[in-house]
Design a protein that fits this description.
- Helices cover 34% and strands 16% of the residues.
- By secondary structure, it is α/β, with parallel strands linked by helices.
- The structure holds pyridoxal-5'-phosphate (PLP).
- Pyridoxal-5'-phosphate binds next to helix 4.
Length: 489
């Protein structure tokens, strides 16, 4: 199955020059947690629309508009089918990304009295919107980075909770909280549940269950760009009755049935909350990618990725000097592994993997600062921030993340493990410049101009030149960088 699937993804043909290499090397992509590449049929669906049916939807009495409308309207059905949602009582509002979908959920719930419970493992996008709209309490974690269910029960008992907003799978550790159990507890307490499904959508089958089931999901947010569709399309599943109980999220074109200078009658959902022209080709492509995933089979995908997760996890844990964070349980985690190599800054590890092996990972705090702070045992993160601002530290909290997708294979993991050993032994080839420094994210290493092999390892861009960063400071082979996390202690 794997070879057939790899052949469907044009990105699998992508190569990059690597340092000291004579030939270009095939890209090894372990950044599926950030965004996934579309397979050929999804690219085709996107392009066909743009080429043949490009037109605005609704209210157009010409062939193009009618076809476009039909294609666009069918996407809702595909989404509902994918997550097994009941279209009678629920709908899916199309948005641009998961962040927007989660913000919409928080907005809709702002009409209702009560507190929102969220967790310490959330992506910022499932925390900050709730803070914007009302009072929030945070559910704590167990020492292994899993959710503290006793804390959840206690807070549900004691507090007037209206919403529990929890991730379906963490983008830092891959941990999947027990959603059916959390949903049951939430409903018993008279509250609703919102699942951030950004990481789950393409990696695990999803069943939101019938409304009358105590374990059902009220709101589910996810995006196409993490499920093998292009950027710019996402959705929020939720109850029509709640969506229609509040004014449009962005009032404007498409959100009304009738307007006079003295009154307006809002449209029913989903239109009510889809103000303005939507990303029509993006939505159509997302529909196609969901059909693709369904045809491959979510259970098969899960089985394949679980095998790779275990293989990568065992391999990394067997390397002295590598720390892997989180519960490390193949049954309860999707293919997300976050690690550090002792004494090597995460930024440098990711840069070496890129420049010397064409391996794409991500590093930093993954928009989940509180979770990273907890996993790295940073007790006074605010202190960290102050030190950083006063220029005291350069290498601060963070880690390297490798995320597995549908077309990855064992050989790619072997190559990652080989490179991790090379880096652990400080045997990398290049000299690296630190490009820019800021807390948690954009600290970046680039190869020094003129460093050995530089000429062959930089991807050509535009005029064939690529601007190298003028580092604020330098580190490289031989220098001992500050241990990530230790800077804050
Ligand atoms: C768990 C989780 N939630 C939310 C988001 C935000 O998603 P988007 O970039 O689609 O807004 C991400 C993105 O990485 C994520 O991993």
């Amino acid at each position: 199955m794997l070879e057939t699937i790899r052949n469907e993804f044009p990105i699998c043909m992508q190569k990059f020059p690597i340092m000291g290499g004579v030939e270009e090397k095939a890209l090894i992509y372990f950044d599926h947690g950030a965004s996934t590449h579309p397979p050929r049929r999804v690219i085709d669906a996107h392009c066909t629309f743009v080429e043949k049916y490009y037109s605005n939807i609704h209210r157009g009495n010409h062939n193009l508009s009618m076809i476009a409308t039909d294609m666009f309207d069918k996407v809702e059905e595909v989404i509902m089918n994918f997550i097994k949602g009941d279209q009678e009582t629920n709908t899916a509002i199309l948005t641009t990304n998961t962040t927007c979908a989660l913000d919409l959920a928080a907005y809709v719930m702002s009409n209702i009295e009560g507190i929102t419970l969220t967790t310490l493992m959330e992506h910022h996008s499932n925390y900050l919107p709730h803070v914007k709209y009302g009072e929030v309490e945070i559910i704590g974690l167990n020492p292994d980075g899993t959710l503290n269910m006793e804390d959840l029960k206690d807070k549900l008992d004691r507090l007037p909770v209206k919403l529990v907003a929890v991730t379906g799978a963490s983008n830092v550790t891959g941990f999947m909280p027990d959603i059916p159990e959390i949903a049951r507890l939430t409903h018993d307490a008279g509250a609703r549940i919102l699942i951030d499904g950004a990481q789950l959508l393409a990696h695990h089958s999803i069943d939101v269950l019938p409304d009358e089931d105590p374990g059902h999901i009220d709101f589910f947010a996810a995006a196409g760009h993490k499920a093998y569709a292009p950027f710019g399309s996402a959705f929020l599943f939720g109850p029509r009755i709640l969506f229609d109980s509040i004014e449009p999220y962005i009032p404007g074109g498409g959100t009304v049935q009738f307007v006079t200078p003295r009154m307006n009658i809002w449209a029913k959902s989903p239109d009510r909350h889809q103000g303005g022209t939507p990303n029509i080709p993006g939505a159509i492509a997302m529909g196609e990618s969901l059909k693709f995933l369904k045809e491959v089979g979510l259970d098969k995908i899960r089985e394949h990725e679980k095998f790779l997760y275990k293989y990568m996890l065992d391999g990394l844990q067997a390397i002295n000097g590598v720390s892997v964070y989180g519960p490390k349980d193949p049954d309860r985690c999707i293919g997300v592994i976050t690690f550090n190599i002792t004494d090597i800054p995460n930024e440098l590890v990711a840069a070496i993997l890129n420049y010397e092996a064409a391996i794409a990972t991500r590093n930093g705090c993954f928009c989940a600062h509180p979770y990273i702070q907890s996993l790295l045992d940073i007790e006074e993160p605010e202190e960290c921030w102050n030190k950083f601002n006063s220029g005291e530290n350069l290498f601060l909290m963070g880690a390297v993340r490798a995320t597995i997708g549908i077309y990855n294979n064992k050989d790619e993991i072997d190559e990652l493990l080989r490179m991790v050993r090379v880096i652990r032994d400080q045997k990398w080839k290049g000299d690296y410049d630190l490009k820019a420094a800021s807390m948690c994210q954009p600290i970046r290493f680039t190869l020094k101009k003129g460093g050995a092999g530089t000429a062959t390892c930089l991807p050509k861009m535009g005029n064939g030149k690529r601007e190298m960063g003028k580092g604020k400071c330098e580190t490289g082979k031989g220098e001992k960088p500050v241990k990530p996390g230790a800077t804050c202690g």
